[in-house]
Design the sequence.
């Protein structure tokens, strides 16, 4: 199978890669680079393609890449002064309040 052939991946893996790439693009990563990173993440998660031909199929994957979220959280906040954090919190509260006025779910 040539490198870059995605036929051995499941629909779920392709969906996952799409979502990951989308997240990168939102953060200003170029489309090609986002795609590259997304597939790298799926590979890290699942250990490569999962379609027929071997023991790979249908095995649950622990999503190791997805577990990094908790580790990463708070690093940015920790390096900022208390004043900056509270200013940011005030801004967030104002935004939430503003958004609530537009679509109130009562």
Sequence:
């Amino acid at each position: 199978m040539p490198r870059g052939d995605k036929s051995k991946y499941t629909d779920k893996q392709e969906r996952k890669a799409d979502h990951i790439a989308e997240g990168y693009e939102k953060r200003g990563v170029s489309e090609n680079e986002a795609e590259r990173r997304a597939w790298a993440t799926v590979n890290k998660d699942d250990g490569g393609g999962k379609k027929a031909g071997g023991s790979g199929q249908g095995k649950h994957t622990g999503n190791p890449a997805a577990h990094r979220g908790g580790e990463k959280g708070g690093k940015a906040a920790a390096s900022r002064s208390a004043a900056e954090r509270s200013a940011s919190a005030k801004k967030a509260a104002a935004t939430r309040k503003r958004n609530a006025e537009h679509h109130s779910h009562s």
